C-alpha cells in the first residue's frame, strides 16, 4: 500500500512538472503605425522590428492604406511585442510583368519581382529607423523616401 501511494505521488509530481512546461504567451504591448513612401501609403510591405538586446522581434504587414499591426511569433495575432529597443527595416516586393519578344517573334510574359523601395530600407543596419516600445499603446509611423 505504501508503495502504491509513493508511485501515485511521483505520478502527480511528474504531471505537474510537465503541465508547467507548456508554451507561455508573451506579455506584449500594442504596436501599430503607417508606412509611406514619399508621403503615399505603402501597401503590401512587411515591417520588421529586430530586438536590440532585450525584447522579442516582431513583424507586421501593411494594408492598402499603409497601416500595419505588429505581432511576435509567441504573442497573439496583432498584439504587438514586448517593451524594448528595436531596429526597423522593411521588405516591399512588387510583381512586374514585362512583355518580351523571343527569337521567333512570339510575345512572352514573365513575372519578375522587384523591390518597391530603395535597398537601404531592406537592411536593419542601413534602414535608419529605430523604435522604443513602451508599456501601453505604441504608434510608429515610417516615411520612406525614394531618394
Structure notes:
- By secondary structure, the protein is mainly beta.
- It is built from 1 helix and 13 strands, in the order αβββββββββββββ.
- The strands form 4 sheets. Strands 1, 2, 5, 12 and 13 form a 5-stranded mixed β-sheet that branches. A 4-stranded antiparallel β-sheet has the order 4-3-6-11, with no helix packed on it.
- Strand 8 and strand 9 form a beta hairpin.
- The longest helix has 19 residues.
- The chain is elongated, with a radius of gyration of 24 Å.
- The N and C termini lie far apart (81 Å).
Biggest β-sheet description: 5 strands, mixed
* Uncertain segments: 1-22
**Fraction in helix:** 10-25%
Strand content is: 35-45%
* Secondary structure: number of strands: 13
Distance between the termini: 81 Å
Mean pLDDT: 81
Q: What form results from the Cα inertia axes?
A: elongated
Secondary structural class: mainly beta
Number of H- or I-type helical stretches: 1
Note the run of SSEs as H and E: HEEEEEEEEEEEEE
**Over the alpha carbons, how many angstroms does the gyration radius reach?**
24 Å
Concise description?
By secondary structure, the chain is mainly β. It is built from one helix and 13 strands; from the N terminus they run αβββββββββββββ.
List the helices and strands and how they pair.
Blueprint: H1 2-20, E1 31-37, E2 40-41, E3 46-51, E4 58-61, E5 67-69, E6 84-91, E7 93-96, E8 99-101, E9 107-109, E10 112-115, E11 129-133, E12 138-139, E13 142-144
Parallel strand pairs: 1-12, 1-13
Antiparallel strand pairs: 1-2, 1-5, 3-4, 3-6, 6-11, 7-10, 8-9
Amino acid at each position: 500500500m505504501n508503495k502504491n501511494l509513493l508511485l501515485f505521488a511521483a505520478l502527480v509530481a511528474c504531471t505537474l512538472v510537465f503541465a508547467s512546461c507548456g508554451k507561455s504567451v508573451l506579455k506584449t504591448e500594442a504596436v501599430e503605425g503607417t508606412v509611406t513612401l514619399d508621403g503615399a501609403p505603402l501597401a503590401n510591405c512587411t515591417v520588421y522590428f529586430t530586438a536590440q538586446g532585450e525584447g522579442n522581434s516582431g513583424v507586421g504587414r501593411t494594408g492598402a492604406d499603409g497601416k500595419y499591426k505588429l505581432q511576435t511569433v509567441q504573442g497573439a495575432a496583432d498584439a504587438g511585442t514586448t517593451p524594448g529597443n528595436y531596429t526597423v527595416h522593411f521588405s516591399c516586393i512588387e510583381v512586374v510583368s514585362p512583355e518580351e519578344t523571343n527569337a521567333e517573334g512570339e510575345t512572352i510574359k514573365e513575372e519578375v519581382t522587384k523591390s518597391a523601395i530603395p535597398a537601404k530600407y531592406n537592411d536593419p543596419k542601413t534602414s535608419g529607423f529605430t523604435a522604443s516600445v513602451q508599456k501601453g499603446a505604441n504608434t510608429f509611423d515610417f516615411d520612406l523616401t525614394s531618394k
